[in-house]
Design goal:
Structural class: alpha/beta
Order of helices and strands: EHHEHEHHHEHEE
Number of domains: 1
Strand order of the largest sheet: 3-2-4-1-5-6
Low-confidence stretches: 207-213
Mean pLDDT: 94
CATH class: Alpha Beta
């Protein structure tokens, strides 16, 4: 089977990203910067040979995918399995609020216990299994082609770990920036890393376009 090239994109910025408030599976929209970032990544991919765009159904990812679809002429396909990790009772809270309300749980979170999950949420192990299986299933449909996956920071983290062999409990030292371009290669043997956190399309000193202010 031929390899599938994958362009993985985290959604553009939201107000909750700025506030360090946990979004999880809550449906938070892009802010003005996020819309600008989505337009920039869409422009960066306009000449790429893309066969399909798959996106988390959550609005912040979906609107980012729609911008890419508008520039490439492809209709994004909703894939709920690409949604962010569920953080249960942590959702809607800031890091400071979580540490104050659940100090023991916050410690296990910081230590990246693969089998721990916040009340009502997912563990890292569950998230990893969901994302790796979903990515493999989507990639198998497009052997020899290139696809775009638009999702979330937690999803990008799982893709990076799967492609580089990083354990789930290993501290993260790689970037998960909003609207950065990440490239992977899928074969039946798994994922490999091609390029990560390309920000060249976002390196613009000009003010936000008037339409986004």
């Amino acid at each position: 089977m031929q390899a599938t090239r994958i362009i993985a994109i985290r959604h553009g910025e939201t107000a909750w990203n700025v506030d360090t408030r946990i979004q999880g599976q809550l449906d938070i929209e892009l802010n003005a910067t996020g819309h600008w970032q989505a337009s920039r990544v869409a422009q960066a991919l306009v000449d790429e040979p893309i066969s399909a765009i798959y996106s988390s159904h959550l609005l912040r990812a979906w609107d980012t995918a729609r911008a890419i679809g508008d520039s490439t002429g492809l209709d994004p396909q909703a894939c709920p399995e690409l949604r962010e990790r569920s953080f249960g009772v942590f959702q809607g809270k800031t890091f400071v609020e979580i540490e104050a309300a659940w100090p023991e749980q916050a410690l296990r979170w910081r230590r990246r216990d693969p089998d721990w999950a916040p009340e009502g949420g997912e563990s890292l192990a569950q998230l990893s299994q969901r994302i790796v299986q979903t990515t493999s299933a989507l990639a198998q449909r497009h052997a020899g082609e290139q696809i775009v996956l638009v999702a979330h920071g937690g999803v990008m983290d799982m893709l990076y770990r799967a492609a580089t062999g990083q354990d789930l409990h290993t501290a993260r030292s790689w970037n998960l920036g909003n609207a950065t371009i990440n490239r992977l290669l899928w074969t039946p043997q798994g994922l490999t890393l091609v390029g990560w956190a390309d920000t060249r399309h976002l390196e613009n000193d000009e003010a936000l376009d008037e339409s986004f202010t």
